[in-house]
Amino acid sequence: MSEAASVRVQGLSRRFGTVTALNGVGFTAPAGELTCLIGPSGCGKTTLLRLIAGLDAPSEGAIEIDGQDVTRLSPAQRGAGMVFQSYALFPNMTVEANISYGMKRGLSAREMSARVDQLLETVGLPGLNHRLPNALSGGQQQRVAIARALAPDPRILLLDEPLAALDPQIRERLRVELKSLQHRLGVTTIMVTHDQEEALAIADRIVVMRAGRIEQADPPETVYNLPASAFVAGFVGAANVIPATVSAPGQIQLFGVRSLAAATADFAIGASVTVCVRPEAVRLEQGEGRGVSARIVARQFAGATQKLEAALEGVARARVSLEVPADRPAPPIGALVHLDFPADRLRLFPGAEASAVSAQDEVAWT
Ligand SMILES: Nc1ncnc2c1ncn2[C@@H]1O[C@H](COP(=O)(O)OP(=O)(O)O)[C@@H](O)[C@H]1O
Ligand SMILES: [Mg+2]
How far, in Å, is the centroid of ligand 1 from the Cα of 226? Predict the structure, then answer.
């Protein structure tokens, strides 16, 4: 492989007529790491990847690969390998011909064929040299597409939803293989996915995008545990996103009514805030007295856990999702319970942002 190269973009914007697809984006993909770009459909992920590959030019801003400004270089000069969601193999060419297609000129037929064998070994498809694409499964076709992208020995690998068209089980297996391949080759990789679970599972760093901007760029653990905004909390993993007000130092009123302890030092008394709390952080208290009273309205068995939904007593449409270990008895639907919200698991953000992420919450709970 080529030496791994870092990718740095700065102040990158791309406008299409009146549409601003990217609006001053900046981040670094460190050398040898797997960086995942995630965000809702239309937020600019593909546009960003195409700009890095050199398939499109920015309205403003710069792209560096390994410290070199490549903004004005052709795709070939940048040394990026690319894989798209649709397999995009040449249908009338064998696997071997597909993989050889982009190889460096000047290799002998024997060298090319040895390299094809090596790449097929790398992606776990030894011996399939003479198959045509339509004689391969979707997962196999995507592996060939990855082998083809690796054939010219790229400095960086750019993947646009490479697993999105595959069945869930194959997708899950292939993402583990992709990660171990990426790690083994040490090739700097930027991968777009709309699947936040996939990003959490395999990324070294996650870049969360929203409407042409970056909301957060951090390792998965940080994005999950310390989301930079209510949007990120709602988009990555399941989260309760609850409107609240700061009622006193160290006190908030959830949904404007239920008093709770919280770290409020960053906010003025009376400020509107958005509280984010993961379902697994909400504690179910047995017995009276503690916490907020609520009624169980839905229950889902999820293997290792039970997912519950509780409606707060006396507050219209105030729902809270929680998750409890499945080996403990969970209250039945209709049961009156008490919920505790540990202060150290509450994340407070300025303003009332709940509506912006509610659609995503629904997705997370179906
Ligand atoms: N060639 C184009 N012409 C006009 N608008 C475009 C073009 N490419 C992308 N867009 C717009 O830019 C925005 C971002 O698109 P895209 O980067 O494809 O999003 P994503 O990959 O995150 O779903 C969308 O509003 C899309 O309609
Ligand atoms: Mg896209």
Answer: 29
| pLDDT value for 289 | 64
Ligand 1 centroid vs 52 CA: distance in angstroms? 15
Residue 2, in any domain of the structure: no
| Helix 109-122 × helix 138-150 angle, to 10° | 130
Range of the domain at 237: 231-364
Spans in the chain with pLDDT lower than 50: 354-366
Q: Judge if 129 and 193 occupy the same domain.
A: yes
Distance 357 CA to ligand 2 centre (A): 20
User: Alpha carbon of 206 to those of 9, 279, 302: distances in Å?
Assistant: 15, 22, 26
Residues 218 and 258 in one domain: no
Among 230, 264, 288, which residue terminates a domain?
A: 230
- CATH number at 178 reads 3.40.50.300
**Span from the CA of 169 to the centroid of ligand 2 (angstroms):** 22
User: Which contacts (CB < 8 Å, 24+ apart) does range 108-116 have?
Assistant: 115/151, 116/147, 116/151
Which of 47, 50, 160, 191 to mutate for ligand 1's pocket (most ligand atoms within 8 Å of CB)? 47
Closest ligand 1 atom to Cα of 39: 22
The pLDDT assigned to 356 comes to: 42
Name which residue sits closest to atom 4 of ligand 1, judged by CA: 16
pLDDT digits (tens, 9 = 90+) for 99-126: 998 787 788 989 999 999 999 999 999 9
Domain end, chosen from 184, 210, 230, is at 230
Q: Looking at the structure, do residues 220 and 276 belong to the same domain, yes or no?
A: no
Q: From atom 24 of ligand 1, which residue's Cα is the shortest distance away? A: 42
User: Which pLDDT belongs to residue 87?
Assistant: 64
Enclosing H/E stretch for 295: strand 292-302
Position 192 scores a pLDDT of 97
For 204-215, what is each residue's pLDDT tens digit?
999 999 999 999
Same domain, 298 and 270: yes
